Amino acid sequence: MTTVTGDPRIRLARALLGAVEIVPDPLLPPRVVRVVDIGGRHFVAKQHDKHARYVSELHAYRTWGSLLYGHAPELVGRHDATRTLLLTALAGDRAETAAPGSPEEELVHHEAGRVLGKLHRDTSMPQSGAIGAVLAQRLQIWIERAVHDDLIDTTEQNLLSRHAAVLNSSLTESAVCHLDYQPRNWLIGDAFGICDFEHMRRDARIRDFARLQFRRWQTAPHLRTAFLHGYGRPLNDTELRLLESFGAIEAATALVKGHKENDLTLSAQGRTVLSQLS
Questions:
Q1: In which element (H, E) is residue 76 found?
Q2: Are residues 82 and 157 located together in one domain of the fold?
Q3: Which of 68, 89, 110 is the last residue of a domain?
Q4: d(CA 94, CA 193)
Q5: How confident is the model at residue 127 (pLDDT cuts 50, 70, 90)?
Q6: Mapping DSSP to helix (H, G, I), strand (E, B) and coil, where does residue 44 land?
Q7: Residue 202: how many CA atoms within 13 Å on its side-chain side?
Q8: 263 and 228 share one domain
């Protein structure tokens, strides 16, 4: 184990916990570090490069963290000037380690649905057209960027624009959503855990299913069944059609971000989702 004295994350951890050491964890992204204190307790320190993401994640932990008690890290402290958070570390392994097609993978999706269902029920608000209009506007901006970068042809542009029109005229039930709800942000151990709350906000409730629908469930519908059984509420035909329009947002954002960041995997995901839309 090593220590890095100049790292804002380590400085924050030491200020709040005393002596700490870094625990190497290759599964964590570069801006997150795991540390252990002299009592053997594990924590993670996360530094944001964007102020808006820092504020969003801090707000999520302070406002909604209690609704996920036992399933989410707890906020230990923060340092606003360096956009750094110190959180308790959840025990367990990344859900991505569950073998494809295994009973464990199916159980993970069931638990993921159960925990998300409780969050949505606790924060649910009636249908309105406000969120759909905002999402339509955002999608149109991503479409314009994709056209500018020559990432989509005219047929694909028209397809995405049709989905923007659907969103603009849709009534959607809202809830507090994680918005990156997929196995890379789930932990399996003694209890099911969720991490990475920087995108969390009130949004269209079923938008929280979009990444699972287009990145996992298309080739493994039994996982959708397990998830929705845990969630406690099936998707009706209207919601399934609306979910496809949320897929249009997934496709457009992945194509643009993948191109901007030279991320071939993300670009391929965007292209795959786009090909699944009708």
A1: strand 75-79
A2: no
A3: 89
A4: 9
A5: confident
A6: strand
A7: 16
A8: yes
Instruction: Kindly state the tokens that stand for 161.
Output: 């624009």
Strand (E) or helix (H) holding 225: helix 221-231
Per-residue model confidence as pLDDT tens digits over 188-247: 988 899 999 999 999 999 999 999 999 999 999 999 999 999 999 999 999 999 999 999
Q: Is residue 259 included in any domain, yes or no?
A: yes
- How long, in residues, is the chain? 278
Claim to verify: residue 22 and residue 104 sit in the same structural domain: no
20 strand-pairing partners: 37
Are the C-beta atoms of 27 and 94 separated by less than 8 Å?
Answer: yes
The residue behind tokens 């249009």 is: 248
Mean pLDDT value of segment 178-182: 96
Q: In terms of residue numbers, what domain contains 136?
A: 94-276
Q: CA-to-CA distance for 193 and 228, rounded, in angstroms?
A: 18
Residues 64-109 pLDDT 10s: 999 999 999 999 999 999 999 999 999 888 899 899 999 999 999 9
CA 221-180-243 angle, to 5 degrees, is 50
Report whether 158 contacts 147 (CB < 8 A). no
Phi/psi of residue 113, nearest 5 degrees: -65, -40
Could you tell me if 152 and 160 are in contact, meaning their C-beta atoms sit under 8 angstroms apart? yes
Domain match, 199 and 103 both = yes
d(CA 13, CA 20) in angstroms, rounded, equals 7
Residue 276 tokens read as 């699944």
Residue 132 one-letter amino acid: G
Q: Give 150's DSSP letter.
A: T
> What's CA 99's distance to the chain center, in Å?
21
Task: Write the CATH number for 143.
Answer: 3.90.1200.10
Tokens of 158: 């028209």
pTM of the predicted structure, to 2 decimals:
0.91
